[in-house]
Amino acid sequence: MNNGDIVQAKDQGARLVLIEGENIDPLFRNIQEIIGVPIEHIVITAMRRATRSYVSRIVPDDVKELIHKKEMDPVPIALAMMDVASMLGHGGQEYVDHRYEKDDDDYYIVKMLEPFSVPMVCGTIAGAVEAILGHDRGVTYEQESPEVYKVTTIPLTHPEEFKQRMHMKPYNHRDGDIELERCDACGGPKALSAYRWHVERGVIIDETSQRRLVMIGPQELDRIFEELKEELGETINQVIVEAQRRFTKSGFYSIADARTEEDFRTLLALRGLGKLKEIKYSKNGLRMRLDNAALPLMIVGMMQGVFETSVGEVSTVEWEFSEDGNLEIEVSQIIW
């Protein structure tokens, strides 16, 4: 759209971003390393709740009722959900088996192929099953080969505190002034031609950088971060920024990814991350303002990491994220 955002055409309260999928699980691992506490269960729970809420809205109630009465096979619905996941770059999925007798011996088994994030995709699968069948599900996975995982969901009642949290707020678009050049054939942004959708694998590749991309709702990651804050306190924001800084300094991102300020503005808008208003960079620091920002904590950590990689120095970072979604970042080199 015209404000650095991507929304679903039929559900414009659902915002999406197109980001590097290879950033996600390393970010979670860095958070775990910093805090010394496993977070995989929080990631899975947040994704399960978000997916259950979304799928419950898009699958008609009469279809769910037919499935509950065992008058309709749930497998075609599951296969359709797998197709959606593939088109979003979440990886491939293969149906294996299921049992639905409405008792504790029920199960649903699927194989994940090249998942962009193991815990996030596991949570998505469990949430979709919950939405269709209307009952809580637990999920486990086992790795069968480097890029193949067997995922099993079974009946499992979730703790009451998780049921009371993690409500997703709809996104409200505000008009902006960003105009991306459009493709004459499909009407989408012309710059998307640099990305290749391998739908049969569920993989999206940036042909320029050869990085893998994924389309997800930024609120899904935001809810994971909010749940971490509930569990671990306000300092989790600094932990997330630091985790992203460490990942960026591994060499994944570079200031050379965008040759000019206008290139960077277009890239952020194309990815649905917001509208770049200002960026100033020197060897002493970096200042940036991004309006309508998505995933602000990840962007702060990324920009600090990009600055440090560029100048070869350590830095401090301060940021402010306003209620109306505007992000201001100030990175300063530490002078010893």
Q: What does this 3D model show about the protein?
A:
With 336 residues, the chain is an alpha+beta fold. The protein folds into two domains: 1-233, H-NOX domain (Alpha-Beta Complex), CATH 3.90.1520; 238-333, Muramoyl-pentapeptide Carboxypeptidase, domain 2 (2-Layer Sandwich), CATH 3.30.1380. It contains ten helices and 13 strands. The protein is globular, with a radius of gyration of 21 Å. The mean pLDDT is 92.
- Average of per-residue pLDDT values: 92
Structural class determined from secondary elements:
alpha+beta
Cα-based radius of gyration, to the nearest Å: 21 Å
Q: What is the number of helices?
A: 10
N-to-C SSE series?
EEHHHHEEHEEHEEEHHHEEHEE
Helix content: 25-40%
Question: Which architecture of the largest domain per CATH?
Answer: Alpha-Beta Complex
- In what range is the share of β-strand residues? 25-35%
Alpha-carbon distance between the two ends:
45 Å
Low-confidence stretches: none
Query: So what's the oligomer here?
Result: single chain
- Which geometry do the CA atoms define? globular
Keywords:
single chain; 336 residues; alpha+beta; H-NOX domain; Muramoyl-pentapeptide Carboxypeptidase, domain 2; 2 domains; five-stranded antiparallel sheet; four-stranded antiparallel sheet
Compile the SSE list and pairings:
Blueprint: E1 6-8, E2 11-20, H1 24-35, H2 40-58, H3 61-68, H4 75-87, E3 92-99, E4 107-113, H5 118-133, E5 137-145, E6 148-155, H6 160-164, E7 195-198, E8 203-206, E9 212-216, H7 218-232, H8 236-252, H9 261-270, E10 275-282, E11 285-291, H10 296-311, E12 315-321, E13 327-333
